[in-house]
Amino acid sequence: MNLLVAGLGNELLRDDGVGIHAIRQLQGDPVDGVRYREIGTAMLYALEDFEWADCVLALDSMVASNPPGTIYRMEISRDGDEVPTASLHDLGIRSVFGFLRQDNWPRVVVLGVEPEVIDFGIELTPTVAGALPKYVDQIQQEIRRLLTPA
Questions:
Q1: What is the pLDDT of residues 56-84, one digit of tens each?
Q2: What is the Cα gyration radius of the chain?
Q3: Taking a C-beta distance cutoff of 8 angstroms, is the pair 115, 67 a contact?
Q4: Cβ distance 73 to 142 under 8 Å?
Q5: Contact in structure between 114 and 70 (CB atoms under 8 Å)
Q6: How buried is residue 64: exposed, middle or buried, by Cβ count under 10 Å (0-12/13-18/19+)?
Q7: I need a labelling partner for 25 at 20 to 30 A (CA). Which of 36, 61, 80, 118 fits?
Q8: What residues make up the domain containing 130?
Q9: What is the C-alpha separation between 26 and 149, in angstroms, rounded?
Q10: Domain at 107, CATH number
Q11: CA distances from 124 to 15, 55, 92, 121 (A)
């Protein structure tokens, strides 16, 4: 299986960059056969990676009105007309798949973190930075799950 781990978000907007911070840590200890990409907000530039992937593990901030640092897991369905985007960005990940052939949509799993502050700055808030080790651990567990044959 071709697994893409995609770090999404805007690292110039504090906690919105949590996916970027996580992917940088993961790239230091990669799993063989997994493609790690720091995509940020330039998802259209990553279409080749999305085309390649059988499964995308997207890392991003997610607002769901729980305490900052809360970690979420969700799958994005290719079915249905209206699916909430899992991104704070104008062009969410599901929207990007509209540019792919319908028969080439990968499975999409999102692991997100509830942000505390989305405002100009390059550092994560202490709350979200404190959740980063647990987040990276959950990402590594999810990678193992996705790579394990059913």
A1: 999 999 999 999 999 999 998 766 444 44
A2: 14
A3: no
A4: yes
A5: yes
A6: exposed
A7: 118
A8: 3-147
A9: 22
A10: 3.40.50.1450
A11: 5, 28, 21, 8
